[in-house]
Amino acid sequence: MTVIGVTGAHSHADKRGLAANLAAFAAAREPEPTVVVIDADPHDADVGKRLAIDGPDMQRVCSLSDGVSGGALLAVAARVAWPRLRVVPISPGHTLDSTSVTRLRSVLARLRVAADVVVVDCPVAEPPLRRSPATSLLGTLDVLVLAVTPDRTSVAAAHRFLDRVPHAIERGWLDPNVAVRVALTGDEGSTTLDPFDCADSLGASCSVITTVPQWWGRVPPNFGFGATLQIPEIDRGLAVLVDGTGVAATMRRPALTALPRRVAN
Q1: In angstroms, rounded to a whole number, what is the distance separating the alpha carbons of residues 159 and 125?
Q2: How many CB atoms lie within 10 A of CB 182?
Q3: pLDDT mean over 167-189
Q4: Whole-prediction pTM
């Protein structure tokens, strides 16, 4: 009964593919949990493209939410054969306004009861955090995953984001019990700083930091690219985001010595 949101503080590429892979990793675990991934970022509409799912989309599912149980909403959602995963894509160009976010929050409240894990691909939340539909969506999360590419611009934006988290909690924009986790992402073509230096730099603002190398590519559309499963470097990083454990093991140097080769897109 956990809602995990994935966002970035700078670029959509920082988090591209992360929500889909995180949900797939959670769904592949034993015993088979009920996992649903929802795309709430119309900028890329990345989840549906990556998993080759085009509907029913978020707008359709939200329109059915009034008076409908979470189990019924799960039954409406499209499915991936393996791992057993429910997928709610979003239509490109959809406007994530206050009305649509309110409906999505209602859906999440129902799915929180019906599913074991709900993963939401959230819009980029550029700092400073302020009242907005995107911030309202972040306020529904149990776990907030901030995706950061190890380069100066992304790390600086992450610093500004994390520095404002206490203020956002004080203003009621984030749940005071939200668990904030940082995922260092990227491939050899998008990484300019040492991941360990980034972890040390960001560690003062966030106690849980892991690395999830993006072996699946960062350039859209990657249609039907699917999830990248059973690669130890990725699985260790995703496990930290799901469990909040194993931080020391994930951040040991052997897990980060070789960043992945760029994947052809």
Answers
A1: 13
A2: 28
A3: 89
A4: 0.89
